[in-house]
């Protein structure tokens, strides 16, 4: 995965080493955007576990950043979608730099035990309201 020069100059070795699997997969598909690959081929090229790559691809598909047909995966052709994702990532990094990264454990400690009613399925809601 490529990074901008400013990131290269300010990041530590450890920070540069910790590129997420979805980012690695997305970078690989971006570098080969004229082709579609099987998940196992992507895993082999990136020296990652196939199951890990499959999970990353599924998550990227849910974000509409990759397309899936039969056993093949490719980068989305929707350049606006890719740009929106890149803008989101840049904004998140900016806020993390200014305010500190969000601590997931702290967030989960304050999260409600039950999901908000808008996130419950129809089967989970009480239909006997008056």
What's this, in brief?
With 130 residues, the chain is mainly alpha-helical. It is 55% helix and 8% strand.
Give the total of beta strands: 3
Low-confidence runs (pLDDT<50, min 5 residues)? 124-130
Percent in strands: 5-15%
The top-level CATH class is: Mainly Alpha
- The string of secondary-structure elements, in order, is HHHEHHEEHH
Report how far the terminal alpha carbons are from each other: 56 Å
CATH superfamily membership, which one? Winged helix-like DNA-binding domain superfamily/Winged helix DNA-binding domain
Total number of domains:
1
Shape descriptor reads globular
Radius of gyration: 19 Å
Query: Percent helix among the residues?
Result: 40-55%
- Report the structural category: mainly alpha
Main sheet summary: 3 strands, antiparallel
Kindly identify the CATH topology.
Arc Repressor Mutant, subunit A
Alpha plus pi helix count: 7
Strand order of the largest sheet: 1-3-2
**Nearest-integer average pLDDT:** 79
The CATH architecture is Orthogonal Bundle
Protein name: MarR family transcriptional regulator
InterPro entries: WH-like_DNA-bd_sf (IPR036388), WH_DNA-bd_sf (IPR036390)
Biased composition (Basic and acidic residues): 102-122
Region (Disordered): 97-130
């Amino acid at each position: 995965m490529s990074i901008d020069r400013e990131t290269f100059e300010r990041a530590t070795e450890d920070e540069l080493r910790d590129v997420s699997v979805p980012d690695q997969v997305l970078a690989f598909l971006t570098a080969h955007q004229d082709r579609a690959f099987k998940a196992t081929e992507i895993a082999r090229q990136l020296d990652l576990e196939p199951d890990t790559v499959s999970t990353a691809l599924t998550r990227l598909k849910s974000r509409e950043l990759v397309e899936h047909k039969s056993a093949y995966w490719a980068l989305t052709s929707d350049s606006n979608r890719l740009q929106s994702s890149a803008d989101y990532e840049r904004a998140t990094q900016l806020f993390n730099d200014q305010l500190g990264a969000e601590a997931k454990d702290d967030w989960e400690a304050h999260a409600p035990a039950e999901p908000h009613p808008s996130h419950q399925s129809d089967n989970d809601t009480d239909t006997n309201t008056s």
